[in-house]
Specification:
This protein is of the alpha+beta class. The chain contains 6 helices and 4 strands; from the N terminus they run H-H-E-H-E-E-H-H-E-H.
């Protein structure tokens, strides 16, 4: 007889968990979600770019420095325009991957057009592999915080 109340309690707990899983969280901010382009899961599509060593061999270090300065300036411009939400170098590795971008654009074609504006990519010092990526729509929201903790610009 003790089993009937136990199963009844178990059934009630299961119904409670089921109903919780189907409700909107109390902290949900529709205006913020809409402004960031979030879907119902708080996610959206981006393009992940893996930058690797390119095929160009330029021996003049002044030209190489100028191209990489342009690369960094382009990163800053794309970030200000809201097109780039993550960028950074990778440590040395056997695959010659040099860094990553996460571009805030919906298609690989649009990402490829943006990469044409990068001098280091354009001159083949870096080559790019592009992938569709699904991640948190909140990624762009960290950039204003980063500006507050960045003591020096590259």
């Amino acid at each position: 007889m003790l089993l009937k109340p136990f199963f009844f309690l178990l059934l009630l707990c299961g119904l409670g968990v089921s109903s919780l899983a189907q409700t909107t969280p109390p902290i949900y901010n529709k205006a913020l979600a809409d402004s960031l382009g979030a879907d119902a899961y708080g996610m959206k599509s981006y393009v992940l770019v893996l930058l690797k060593t390119g095929t160009a061999t330029i021996s003049d270090q002044a030209i190489v420095s100028q191209l990489f300065r342009g690369h960094l300036d382009n990163i800053g411009r794309l970030a200000r325009e809201g097109k780039l939400v993550v960028a950074g170098p990778l440590g040395k590795n056997e695959k010659t991957y040099r860094g990553i971008f996460i571009l805030n654009v919906p298609t690989l074609e649009e990402a490829a057009r943006l990469l044409e504006t990068d001098p280091a990519v354009k001159e083949k010092l870096l080559e790019a592999e592009l992938y569709s990526w699904y991640g948190s729509a909140a990624l762009p929201a960290y950039l204003p915080t980063h500006e507050k903790i960045q003591k020096q610009k590259p």
